Amino acid sequence: MAEGTDDRALPVTEELARARTALDAGDLTHAAGHLAGALARAPTMPEVHETLARLATASGSGGLDLFPLQHHTFVGAVVARAHLLAAAGRPAEGLDLLVAASAHAPGTNWAGVPWVTSPDLAERIGPDQAARVLMQVCAAAPDPVPPADRAALAPYLTLAHNAVTVHPEHALLLGTASALARRVGEVPLAVRWATRGVRAAPSKMGEVWLGYALRSAGRTREGLAALRRAVDHDPDDLAVYADIAGTLADHGRLEEALGWIEQALVRNPSFDCAVHTAHRLRFQRDGEVRHLVALADFIRDNPDDSHEHADLAECCRGRPWLGQLTPPPTADPALAPPSANSGIASPPTDPSTTSPSTDSGVASRPTDRALVSPPTDPALVSPPTDPAIVSPPAESDVASPSNGSVARPESSPAGGADPVRSAARRVPSPPSAEAARRLRELAHPAWPHPPAAYDTAVALATLDLTDLLGLLAHPPETPQTALGRVLSGQDPALWVRCVRVWTCLGLLHHRTDEPWASSTRRRVLVELAQAAEVTEAALFALVTAAWVDPAVRPDVARVVAERLTAVAEAAQAGRVSMAVSLAHLALATPDLDPDSLALARTLARVPARPGRGVLRALLRRLLRPFRPRLPGPPPP
């Protein structure tokens, strides 16, 4: 279904005037087009419906041929056809189209017209058809419906009232009416209707609808009893096991909840609802990230779930690096927004802060201060120990003036240099305007979970390496959005960290055809992980790579473990300001060895740095709770 609106959209009064002019001239096709536009903007306006009735009369065929359904049909045309079907004595087909429009634009009152809310409609379509329509509405609506969108569903609730009045003992109708009432906040009504439905004809779905209504009413014990009766009706419906387990866990009965979900997994180890719930509950029990990684693997390997699940996002929400940035370290100069005239920093000369060899450390080369400032933390600038990383850069690693790509000669110059390995070390140029625009559109301090962050960063996939490194060295200004205004006013440094994190995630999409072990993306990220300002961003990108690709997990776990060990040693001397952040990164790393996990847990117990409360306050203002849609009849 197409939106059909753009900058040229006319006001409803103008659309209506043009429709009438075309109708008077006998140009029914143009009249239909303008009426569809008017309906899209004012679906309940009486004058629009009066003109639609005139058009139907003038066409001689009820006007249906003027609003055909095609592969992509403008929503206004769909609604116009729905009203004409009802006028032609086919209200059930018209309701189907109105429900489709409601699913397309939930906040618009498509059904708020007299023929939908008339008591006669319930008698004309019958209880089975009414129940089917209510099922479709529930399947298209979030659970619960946001308060702002509930008025748009009020006509369907009126239809439910009318149908229940005419058919007071129809169990399926009562159950679906209860499901709709519960979604729109009419919980006592939902309990009454579901209770009547179970009394009229006990069934599995009736007990499920009753259990959900009772649970929403705060009557958890009775709700669980109803759900257990649903299992008695159908022991093979494992979705009900997952519902029971989730309810028990929400009320602190975690072991009992795990018992229910284990029963479900014994019956079907690959049933999606049970698998999602099991991993979520296991993570709640011990906090080990391996459960979430296993869930991410299951999601990747089983893309055709029965419906959308939010368990992984729920577990990651608000957790450092799993769902958001950590709070900024205390007084870390690396987090200060780069000065507009900072320019290129001179190579550090203090032997206490410089790697002994000019060929072994990132910080020993002239760099842009915004990317790598003079180091003060030896643990974050010491040369890496991997011989595959420490080769000095070649002079031939220069961006091509035509396309910005990195030259890659077939053989390395004398001394074993690899031209790609200096990509993270050379002085970056400012990014292109297009690169800055893309970065502004996606950078955010929070994400649903690491695989989702990886998927979002694909928007940077076509940027060349010059642009990506340029974004690190020259972070774009904060966007003129709600996020940008909040960050500019309260925590400008957080925006710089967002830029670095999302740019490094973009690096994961650079030359993905290259094998990981020898790839440009790995080498650049591992090298960036040695620079204090971008250590956490580069490591998070590596950790994210491990989440989405099991084959790279041993390599990433080793890199993270090495950095964690260096940080821990420096932390003992009080030289590391981001130890807590890197510890949380380690805790989010798949397949990290037990000793490193224990070390990370120790570091993560360091008292929270000032700023944690600020970050949480910002995220509360910027994020809305994730409300999944659960399509597919029959909805509970």
Automatic annotation (TrEMBL):
Region (Disordered): 323-436
Regions that span the bilayer: none
Composition bias type Low complexity, residue spans: 351-360
Superkingdom to which the source organism belongs: Bacteria
Matching SUPFAM superfamilies: TPR-like
Protein name: Tetratricopeptide repeat protein
Provenance organism: Micromonospora zingiberis
